Amino acid sequence: MTNSRFENILATFCSPALMGKKVSNLVSVSKEEVPEVSTLVNSYNQKLNRHDIKIKKVCECGERILLLVYREELLRNHLLTSEIREILMNYGYSKSNTIDEDLEILSRKMQKIKFPHEIGVFLGYPLSDVQGFIENKGRNYKYCGYWKVYKDTQEAQKIFLMYDDLKNFMISELDYGRNLDNIIGQFQNINIA
After folding, report:
1. Among 21, 124, 156, 178, who pairs with 149 as Cys (CB 3.0-4.6 Å)?
2. In this predicted structure, what is the pLDDT of residue 86?
3. Which among 1, 59, 3, 49 is positioned nearest to 27, based on CA atoms?
4. Quick check: 150 and 141 in contact, CB under 8 A?
5. Sign of the dihedral through C-alpha 121, 127, 129, 131
6. Which InterPro entries does the entry mention (predicted)?
7. Where does the pLDDT of residue 190 fall: very low under 50, low under 70, confident under 90, or very high at 90 and above?
8. Angle separating helix axes 72-80 and 82-90, nearest 10 degrees
9. Is 57 domain-assigned?
10. C-alpha angle 145/148/108, rounded to 5°?
11. pTM of the entire structure?
């Protein structure tokens, strides 16, 4: 089952993760716009798992569903780094958790708290910016793009431009009639940004 509206949403908000340039992206999908979203998640997981891409529903919040689109190996390796584990342990995660256990804890927290502070870690934001966000309660940032930047604005702006290029590339490929599975499969090992 393919759905062009769902693919456009994923391309618009999750291109960096889909193309392997980011560990994960978070996207909010309207149940009104895409009523079959749960069925589509299952279908797209079957298609995209061969590219090491998974889609997990992390929160069903009223009329919207929050999906985490992630590269499993990239996210696992990221979450296993000692600095990241240390931060996660401060927020109730165990040192020995698997990626599935970490995502389950995150999902439970997102049902109670809109966006737990550690979400930035799961999204692969620079640790200095995650810590800056926590310490400054989301204020006093130097720049705001795909995330609030507290440290290296120049590097962040380069990354933001790359993310924009990935999004534009994927959307143009979809406009040419290709589907996500084909785009990811063909361009998985090509550096387009």
Report:
1. 156
2. 95
3. 59
4. yes
5. positive
6. DUF3793
7. low
8. 80
9. yes
10. 110
11. 0.94
